[in-house]
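STRUCTURE:
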């Protein structure tokens, strides 16, 4: 609460004061994150995954998991009160534990905290989640540092020193929405980061953002793929010569049209990281597969019947984060859908990988004829003159497609979108296209490509 009041007070203060305050916060965070044994451990993990044999991870993962489950079952009230089995090995034990949804975790309240570790200083984070349901989580400093080490190692793997100047396009609100003249960004001198206000992207401020990009010549860009896409689009539209050397996305599902835009405009690939409240869970290698981190978490992909989905088949991603005994999330239902790769990856990173992450379970719509349809972003594959779009299922058979048009948008594009939508949603549905000036974000500034008002979502 105190943090929220501080945020509000800072939004109302002059820009120089906001910048100074942001740097104070950054200094503290940087000191807290990038130090200690846990950070160094995280930093060396991806190297380990390249040099050691896959079987050795499996064994070490099993040992860590058993220890983590034993401590959780013995100390954490929520699990003490629930039947949790023990199998012949750690993985079999894990399979007998209940799944944990975000609603379960919220409902558990204090019961999900390790009583002794709760008394030590720790980090409290908040997330709106992609569904807008607020959720706060607690991390031990060790867990936080390990995560940062792992993330920095991921940048290093792709040839980026995290100390090089980078641009961050994240959900933090630090520039008042009504501000109409630059700067629309803050410089964080400790993380060497230029934080762009994504709430000002895609409009009149674009020229100022580009001027800042060119002047600072940032090395790489990180953040929400929807915002990265808007920035690439702005560079294209305004003919900017700026080229980042790399792009790292997180927090939202990356769509093909976003990857295409970045490739075409900036000439580089998006390296996506996958993680939620449960930290850094997987990251894309140079060949595009999402490699997991067996020494920090256990990833399961479960089919609808609750059984493990075989490679190549989609299922819900369920994660056990072994780094945070303070608030153990065991078999945490992420609400995201993905599939294991069918064959080992040739990139040299010796851990299992997901072939793709398809999006949220909520992005799949249920039609009156009983069909479930996902990957709806493909409806826009032919539309070149839209800035962004959102599909809303109003009733089981009524759909609204919100489109933010750009120069060149007209009846032809509209017809293409309608045709593509019909192919997927069938002829029994009613589909209306509405042109809108912008598409609202969630409380944390995340973009949702599909909203269904039919199925209540958690
Ligand atoms: Zn790979």
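SEQUENCE:
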């Amino acid at each position: 609460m105190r943090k929220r009041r501080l945020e509000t007070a800072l939004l109302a203060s002059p820009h120089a004061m906001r910048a100074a305050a942001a740097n104070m916060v950054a200094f503290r965070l940087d000191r807290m994150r990038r130090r200690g044994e846990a950070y160094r451990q995280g930093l060396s993990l991806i190297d380990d995954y390249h040099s050691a044999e896959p079987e050795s991870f499996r064994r070490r993962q099993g040992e860590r998991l058993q220890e983590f489950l034993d401590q959780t079952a013995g100390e954490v009230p929520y699990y003490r009160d629930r039947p949790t089995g023990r199998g012949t090995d750690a993985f079999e034990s894990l399979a007998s534990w209940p799944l944990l949804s975000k609603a379960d975790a919220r409902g558990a309240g204090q019961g999900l905290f390790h009583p002794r570790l709760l008394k030590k200083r720790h980090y409290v984070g908040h997330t709106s989640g992609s569904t807008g349901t607020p959720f706060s989580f607690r991390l031990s400093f060790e867990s936080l540092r390990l995560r940062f080490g792992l993330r920095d190692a991921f940048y290093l793997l792709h040839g980026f020193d995290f100390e090089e100047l980078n641009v961050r396009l994240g959900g933090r609100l630090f520039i008042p929405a009504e501000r109409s003249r630059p700067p629309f960004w803050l410089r964080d001198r400790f993380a060497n980061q230029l934080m762009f206000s994504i709430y000002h992207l895609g409009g009149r401020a674009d020229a100022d953002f580009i001027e800042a990009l060119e002047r600072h010549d940032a090395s790489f860009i990180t953040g929400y793929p929807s915002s990265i896409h808007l920035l690439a689009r702005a560079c294209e539209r305004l003919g900017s010569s700026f080229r980042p050397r790399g792009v790292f996305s997180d927090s939202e599902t990356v769509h093909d049209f976003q990857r295409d835009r970045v490739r075409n405009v900036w000439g580089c690939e998006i390296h996506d990281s996958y993680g939620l409240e449960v930290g850094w869970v997987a990251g894309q290698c140079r060949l595009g597969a999402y490699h997991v981190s067996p020494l920090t978490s256990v990833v399961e992909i479960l089919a609808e019947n609750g059984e493990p989905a075989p490679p190549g088949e989609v299922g819900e991603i369920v994660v056990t984060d072994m780094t945070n005994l303070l608030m153990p999330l065991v078999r945490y239902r992420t609400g995201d859908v993905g599939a294991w790769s069918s064959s080992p990856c040739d990139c040299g990173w010796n851990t299992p990988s997901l072939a793709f992450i398809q999006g949220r379970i909520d992005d799949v719509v249920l039609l009156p004829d009983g069909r479930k349809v996902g990957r709806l972003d493909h409806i826009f594959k032919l539309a070149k003159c839209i800035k962004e779009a959102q599909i809303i299922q109003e009733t089981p058979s009524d759909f609204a497609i919100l489109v933010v048009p750009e120069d060149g948008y007209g009846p032809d594009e509209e017809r293409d979108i309608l045709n593509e939508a019909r192919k997927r949603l069938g002829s029994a549905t009613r589909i209306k296209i509405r042109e809108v000036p912008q598409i609202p974000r969630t409380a944390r500034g995340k973009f949702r490509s599909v909203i269904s008002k039919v199925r209540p979502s958690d």
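REMARK: The CA atoms of residues 4 and 41 lie 32 Å apart.
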